[in-house]
Amino acid sequence: MLELEKEVNGVVITFFSTASAVGKTLISCNMASELARQGKSVCLVDYDLQFGDVCNYLQLLPKNTIADVQRGFTLQGDTCHVEEYLTPYEYRGVLFYVMAAPRKLEEAYNIKTDYAIKAIRQLQLKFDYVIVDTTSMFSVLNLDLLDLSTIVTFLGIVDFIPTIKNMKIGRNTLNELNYDRQKLWLVLNRSNAKTRISIDDVEKLLGEKFYHILPNDFRAASQSIKDGIPLVLKQEHTELGEALRDLVLRYTNQGQMDFEEDHVEDVGTSWLSRIFS
Amino acid sequence: MGNRVMLVERDRLMLEKLTQVVQGTNGFELVARYQSVSDALGQGTIFNPNLILLDIEAQNSVALIADFLKVYPKAAILCMGEKWKAESASHIVQAGARGYIIKPFTGLELQEAVDTFVKLGTEAGCETLVFFSPKGKSGKTTLIANLATALARKTHEQVGIIDADLQFGDMSVFFNLAPKTTIVEAARDAKFLSPVTLHSYFMPVMQNVSVLCGTATPNLIDKVSIRRLENIISMSRSLFRYLLIDVPPGFNPTSIAAAEQSNTTFLVSMINDAYEIDHMKRALEIFKDWEDYQERVKAIFTRVEPCNSQSQQELARQLGYPVTAIIPNEYGIVSDAADNGKMATDIRPDSPLAQSVDRLADEITGRGHRIRWSAS
């Protein structure tokens, strides 16, 4: 039986933020899990090269990492097949693959962006979905990832002002980089955490509404991290798990994308505006 | 008590220029001037200068300074050169000079140089403290801001903060600053600056604390080269008794360059029930490359609950390395402070957060042991 090489490039979804500790790893792992649970072929890539937590969260001991892929490209050129360097994750019949971050910090520091991007392009040919976890800065690698991604999920949280400021700066920078508006989806995590700033204020500041909002469920998230089981794969239903499943549904129902370009009025006299004067 | 100045400058024209400047500046009296070093050493004592402006271009500055100090033990020596050279700066200060000024200078610059280097006190020497974190959201910016104010309060010495985060510098938000100049401009102008003129790029935030703010918009391409950053750090060392540097998370050229220049590098992480300790361990392994890492590298955890010595010991055990300080979880105070451009330790000076910052400040200033004996 012939195995047809996919002619269509898979979807690359990059999880990006400019505020730190917003939940990129948790959400990307859960997204990969949910897509896999729905029967899609998925590869999860950890490009938080120095301190990535994908393998920590999934409690995986990878045999190979992106550092090995780089060595492969260097030695074998185009005959190096990235899919041979993946680590499978399996739980109760749900299966997806992981491209692990380097084991050693020195290896991480020496990963060349070109090879990292080349790996994604190869994976795109093999999988329906390539989910990428990143760092919260505009590194050369991240900029290339943003270019290449089908969808960029820009993640934020409502925290104190420095965090909001960094989200705003990130959003503005993304605007300046002129990405297709349809490609950037703003998602809010930990939305009802006990903070002093409201979602409304933040949306006004960013000038748009959040595409999706995930609730705060520190207990469920911590437990999931402890167990090494993504929330969407657990037997028990949690608010956060449900919200994550909903997010994935919205991603896969691309025809029904109700992305509203809500032009929210600029901040004006909002008390948050002073930090951007 | 005026400045009795002796000028020592080889070049005739420059000597004339500088003479006019010194004579034209209030509070400065030119008591002697020489083109020849031998003459200055042999003949100048009659005039009893207390401030020597010493040309060190094309000279063995260290030997020269030593010679002048022998003959003029009570004078303050300011070295003059045509441009700032980082390598010479630490040598001249170690050799006993007070500081460095670029020539030609104006009367104002001369006055500023004297003010700056006199304020440093008789102990030349700056402690550079770099705060490294494996990932963002470590609590280090809060820590640096509050620690700087504690150090200034306790020692009455000059404390400088450099926000070397070239994409998302938060220091200006913490101090509620709208900076006119940031590290980007300082780096851009670095070639033409000397410590005294660099000082104007720092914003004073309170008594004895100044901040060189990070960038307002992310650097997507390197507007700040590492060499220039190193220059800025080393120039700043002449300005402050304590220099605290905030760097972007992870290992990158900026954080590495800053750490290399540090007297102490603090590794900071926030406890979040995730993999913080793993990350700290990994980071620590890299720093163990330094021969003197045990003295130079210190670990700090923030948001520690409960914040007591058992927790500290347990963290040290898990980390496999001593934990120098733990900071408690006081999200309410911290966010309130940051949202209003105030210091958490000012809002609640009696809080456990303020106390733990104070303890760290004591340890840094070496007062931890002396507290029992000191009368003040």
Task: Describe the overall structure.
The complex is a heterodimer of chains A (277) and B (376). Chain A has helices spanning 24-37, 54-57, 66-76, 105-109, 113-126, 140-148, 161-176, 199-206, 218-227, 239-252; strands at 11-16, 42-46, 87-91, 94-99, 129-133, 151-157, 184-189, 212-213. Chain A is of the alpha/beta class and 277 residues long. Chain A has an 8-stranded mixed sheet, sandwiched between helices. In chain A, helix 7 links the parallel strand 6 (151-157) and strand 7 (184-189). In chain A, helix 1 (24-37) packs across helix 10 and helix 5 packs parallel to helix 6 (140-148). The longest helix of chain A has 16 residues, at 161-176. Chain A starts with 10 loop residues before the first strand and ends in a 25-residue tail after the last helix. Chain B is an alpha/beta fold and 376 residues long. Chain B has 2 domains: 3-119, Response regulator (Rossmann fold, 3-Layer(aba) Sandwich); 127-369, P-loop containing nucleotide triphosphate hydrolases (Rossmann fold, 3-Layer(aba) Sandwich). Chain B contains 18 helices and 13 strands. Chain B has an 8-stranded mixed sheet with strand order 8-9-7-10-6-11-12-13, sandwiched between helices. In chain B, strands 2-1-3-4-5 form a 5-stranded parallel sheet, sandwiched between helices. The interface between A and B is medium-sized, with 35 and 34 residues.
Present the secondary structure layout.
The complex is a heterodimer of chains A (277) and B (376).
Chain A: E1 11-16, H1 24-37, E2 42-46, H2 54-57, H3 66-76, E3 87-91, E4 94-99, H4 105-109, H5 113-126, E5 129-133, H6 140-148, E6 151-157, H7 161-176, E7 184-189, H8 199-206, E8 212-213, H9 218-227, H10 239-252
Parallel strand pairs in A: 1-5, 1-6, 2-4, 2-5, 6-7, 7-8
Antiparallel strand pairs in A: 3-4
Helix pairs in contact in A: 1-10, 5-6
Chain B: E1 3-8, H1 12-23, E2 28-34, H2 37-43, E3 51-55, H3 61-71, E4 76-81, H4 86-95, E5 99-102, H5 107-119, E6 127-132, H6 140-155, E7 159-163, H7 171-174, H8 183-189, H9 195-199, E8 203-206, E9 209-212, H10 226-236, E10 242-246, H11 253-260, E11 264-270, H12 276-287, H13 293-296, E12 297-304, H14 309-319, E13 323-328, H15 331-339, H16 344-347, H17 352-365, H18 367-370
Parallel strand pairs in B: 1-2, 1-3, 3-4, 4-5, 6-10, 6-11, 7-9, 7-10, 11-12, 12-13
Antiparallel strand pairs in B: 8-9
